[in-house]
Amino acid sequence: MHIQPYLFFNGNCEEAFKFYEKALGGKINELHRYKDMPPQEGGDDNGCGPMTPEQKAKFDESIMHVNLTVDGQMMLMGSDSPQDEGTVRGLSISIGIDDVEKGRKVFEALSEGGEVKMPFQETFWAKGFGMCTDKFGVPWMVNAGDKPSP
Question: Which intervals hold domain Glyoxalase/fosfomycin resistance/dioxygenase (predicted)?
Fold first, then answer.
């Protein structure tokens, strides 16, 4: 079983995933726009209802699906949500990294332009741990260099 976060954005999904690609040292493998999607049965509004030409042009360039891998493993998926997906409370994406210095660099990259909730520092369970919310509003926890349990 694999569990991967799927993030919904309000028009800035591509910008966010380019940021994650750089911050995490990953690679965007797949990126599809809504304009690439075949028309839906019963009309071509793709399930979003009537739109002005300006709304349709913006929607067409939005991201329907994107995925990012890090170290050869699927890490994140996402899209621009044409409809309000609501808000999830109590969510944070947790990353486990063996190397403490790499963990520090990832934490610093993710927190750039965002908000540090807990600075990256040694804890009783890890040689390095920090919590931040990135500039897109996504919360992260970075664990690096696990300590053995007593």
Answer: 3-142
29 three-state secondary structure: strand
Contact yes or no for 31/66 (Cβ under 8 A) = yes
Domain that holds residue 107: 90-150
User: Alpha helices, DSSP H only, in 53-141?
Assistant: 53-61, 100-111
Burial class (CB in 10 A: 0-12, 13-18, 19+), 141: middle
At residue 129, what are phi and psi to the nearest 5 degrees? -150, 140
* pLDDT tens profile 33-78: 988 877 765 555 555 666 677 777 777 788 999 999 998 887 899 9
**Spatial separation of the C-alpha atoms in residues 79 and 59, rounded to whole Å:** 12
Structure tokens that stand for 36 in this block: 């690439």
Q: Which strand (E) or helix (H) includes residue 16?
A: helix 13-24
